């Protein structure tokens, strides 16, 4: 998927707003951890899952990955990036003809 997970981690650290300020992570209120292909965002204050999806989509668009990857909720508390299934779309178009 994303070749450098550290770039996404850095993007999130720079863009997540706490108390209206981007990049400060609230002095430990929000923490971002990376392990292999997984990035975990933990927060001591209420944190919108939708906001995290918004930032991830913004990252994908900035790096021209939005055409190949999408953000999908795999559980109630997490998202994952998946490739678009282009083959299925092509087969559906052929069936309609």
From TrEMBL:
Keywords: Cytoplasm, Ribonucleoprotein, Ribosomal protein. The keyword 4Fe-4S does not apply. InterPro entries: Ribosomal_eL22, Ribosomal_eL22_sf. It comes from the Eukaryota. Its main location: cytoplasm. GO terms for molecular function: RNA binding; structural constituent of ribosome. Pfam families: Ribosomal_L22e. One of its GO terms (cellular component) is ribosome. One of its GO terms (biological process) is cytoplasmic translation. The keyword Cytoplasm applies. Gene3D superfamilies: 3.30.1360.210. It is found in: Cytoplasm. Belongs to the eukaryotic ribosomal protein eL22 family. PANTHER family: 60S RIBOSOMAL PROTEIN L22 (PTHR10064), LARGE RIBOSOMAL SUBUNIT PROTEIN EL22 (PTHR10064:SF2). Component of the large ribosomal subunit. The ribosome is a large ribonucleoprotein complex responsible for the synthesis of proteins in the cell. Component of the large ribosomal subunit. This is Large ribosomal subunit protein eL22.
């Amino acid at each position: 998927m994303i070749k450098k997970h550290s770039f996404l981690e850095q993007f999130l650290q720079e863009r997540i707003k706490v108390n209206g300020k981007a990049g400060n992570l609230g002095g430990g209120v929000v923490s971002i951890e990376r392990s292999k292909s997984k990035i975990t965002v933990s927060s001591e204050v209420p944190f919108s899952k939708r906001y995290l999806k918004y930032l991830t989509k913004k990252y994908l668009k900035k790096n021209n990955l939005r055409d190949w990857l999408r953000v999908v909720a795999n559980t109630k508390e997490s998202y994952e990036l998946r490739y678009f299934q282009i083959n299925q779309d092509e087969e559906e178009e052929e069936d309609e003809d």
